[in-house]
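>> received
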Amino acid sequence: MANNSRWEDIKNAKGKPSAEVRAEVEQDLDLGQLMYDLRTEAGLSQRELADRMGTTQSVISRLEEGGGAKNRIDTLARVATALDRHLVLSFPAEIPDQMIDAVRVA
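>> returned
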């Protein structure tokens, strides 16, 4: 049986995440949602996308849930290729008001 009071002590000692950490988590979740939306729009299951990428369904699930580990550019490029999309990285001086099929990370 889990020692729930001990778990609460650990969580309380760790404190609340900083605004920076919260922003990173939000970005990961937004990217996961975008990946989910594009995959389902393409009519693919997680397993089918995984097969196209040469990985496992559990990796796709983890990516769609916001990562766990930071999403690497090479992984995102493989997702784009498997979905017949393009991955575009940009460092514009100003961020456009609207970005279709994109996630702002800066």
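>> Residues 18-82 form a domain with the 434 Repressor (Amino-terminal Domain) fold (CATH 1.10.260.40).
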